[in-house]
Amino acid sequence: MLLEILGSLLGLFVAVYISLKVFFPWVLYDVIYIRSLLKFLSATGKIMQNGLFLIDVFEEKVMKCPDKIFISFQDRSYTYKDVNERSNRVARSALQIGLKAGDTVALMIYNEPAFIWSYLGFLKIGVRMALINFNLRSRLLVSALKASEATTLILGEGHELLTVVQAIKADIPEMQIYVQGVPNGELPGQIQSFHTIMGSASCDEIPKSHREKIKHKDPAVYIYTSGTTGLPKPCIVSQTRLIHTGCFFRTFGIRPDDIFYITLPLYHSSGLLLGVTVVLRSKFSASKFWEDCRTHKVTIVIYIGEMLRYLHSRPKEETDRQHCIRCAVGNGLRMDIWGEFRSRFQIPNIVEFYAATEGPVGTINLFNKVGAVGRSSPILRKVLPAHFIKYDVARDEPVRDENGRCLAIKPGETGLYVTKLIHRHPFDGYKGKKELTEKKILHDVFEKGDRYYNSGDLMMVDKDYFIYFKDRIGDTFRWKGENVSTTEVSNVIADLDFIQDAVVYGVQIPGCEGRAGMAAINLKQSEVTSLNADHLKAISQQCNDLLPGYARPVFIRVIKNVSLTSTFKQYKLDLSEEGFDKSQILDDMYIYDMKQSEYVELTDTILKSIKEGEIKM
């Protein structure tokens, strides 16, 4: 009798499984996804229920395995104990110069171990950190520093950083400036040595009383993003969000013996990779990548799509598959090279994810599904309330019905990614920018009174509920792994006295990730439709001096006038679609020549070389 019952149950199970496999295959994906999500929720829940913060988890790790390697950088390795002691010195030095819990410090440090122990040291005493992009220059840097409301700026080692900050010192007169790695005697007036203070500071453990008043909802870090609403601004990353980011890697089975390889700027990430060894590089090098991975026995690499494209474009070598990498984690990998890259280098698992710094929730592709950034099925939306609504790109607004409600897209369609704002998925917004925070919120989307976070990103959802990134909307595009604010770039170019206006947008280049910057300008002398040598030199110098390399437009186009939308926004859609195709465009166009560091005429020969991939963009 028992055997008959067991046989019946087994038969029922098999029937249900086959039915799901045939008629609802997406449900099986959901089961695996939810199981991974539960691991993540369990890890974060345990930390928060015990009243702990991410820095507490780090200190527990130090107690458990003080001699385990935490950071490998160049020819040196640092154990958890080493990093902890240095972070204690940072914390005590910060207290000595008057910083305390709730204050804000700006960090402008290259990718180096000092970034990590500085980060940890300030967490130990509850000081909030504004992570400054070390590529910023001139007034863009001043704007970022002022937006942070930081009282103190800590600079990492590097003569260039000191030179850049000296140039803007008069614009930030109230800000204390300290430099790491340089003693007082070698610094100019009004700039002090953090290195000297740390040299006499104790490495003893920091009492938790210094951070006892900190709450999980309090800001921990400010990370800058252009988003879709203009100039770079500090996104608020709470202590809770910090915990979530730190536990992110639990979703795909991180192991204690994993070794991570990181070449991406640390100012982009607020999460700590806890329990694993980190091989840190100052910047990405395609020629050194595999050598580093083999030397350090790397098992997981963190990427952006542009990085993998560079690796894929290099000549094939017999050593391509000689490595220990079991997983690549990141975002922006193009669908057309995904399979080829995985096959050529024998990477077993590529985990593509989607997340915005300020976004309430993100998604992750755990299934090696080529091109997908995650999932959002009817079941998953009960847990992660992400939705996709129809969007009118030309009008730059969501499509609404006669009742003023937004319309959900169907499988196979592309729509705007939005997230319902509820208690467990809040949107913390931007520091001191209430009006910009409000601009990121859509109201009355599906019901009167509801509120949704507007990601500014267009996604396609297939029949199995996998999500695919399609494009960005608004005033931002992505190039070289960075978000470029079109407002920021157009303001810099339009400052030149011979330019009337500048429209900046992104254009697609065959074989390249993201969109390359293009500035369509019209001149104050409206009858002039081309740029002379002096014009080109002035634009080149302006962009070189005031913009990071990734934000400098690749192309310049001269137009007769700038068209505006009905709401007086610059109309960019047609310009973006025309790109740099000389068969469609009669206007004069120019391209930035990396060798000459100057804009030159875009000739048919250069255009042919770009399309054939002979010119490195």
TrEMBL record:
GO cellular component, one term: peroxisomal membrane
Superkingdom classification of source: Eukaryota
Start and end residues of each AMP-dependent synthetase/ligase domain: 58-375
Keywords from the named record: ATP-binding, Cell membrane, Fatty acid metabolism, Ligase, Lipid metabolism, Lipid transport, Membrane, Nucleotide-binding, Peroxisome, Transmembrane, Transmembrane helix, Transport
Pfam families in alphabetical order: AMP-binding, AMP-binding_C
Sequence ranges assigned to domain AMP-binding enzyme C-terminal in this UniProt record: 488-569
GO biological process, one term: lipid transport
Reaction(s) this enzyme catalyzes, per UniProt: tetracosanoate + ATP + CoA = tetracosanoyl-CoA + AMP + diphosphate; a very long-chain fatty acid + ATP + CoA = a very long-chain fatty acyl-CoA + AMP + diphosphate
GO molecular function: ATP binding; long-chain fatty acid-CoA ligase activity
UniProt membrane topology term: Multi-pass membrane protein
EC identifiers of the protein: 6.2.1.3
Chief site of localization: membrane
Segments traversing the membrane: 6-29
Main enzyme class: ligase
Protein localization: Cell membrane; Peroxisome membrane
Record-linked PROSITE patterns: AMP_BINDING
Function field: Acyl-CoA synthetase required for both the import of long chain fatty acids (LCFAs) (C14-C18) and the activation very long chain fatty acids (VLCFAs) (C20-C26) by esterification of the fatty acids into metabolically active CoA-thioesters for subsequent degradation or incorporation into phospholipids. The transport and fatty acyl-CoA synthetase activities are genetically separable and are thus independent activities. Esterifies VLCFAs in the peroxisome matrix. The VLCFAs are actively transported into peroxisomes by a PXA1-PXA2 heterodimeric transporter in the peroxisomal membrane.
Assigned protein family: Belongs to the ATP-dependent AMP-binding enzyme family.
Protein name in the entry: Very long-chain fatty acid transport protein
Lineage start: Eukaryota, Metazoa, Spiralia, Lophotrochozoa, Mollusca
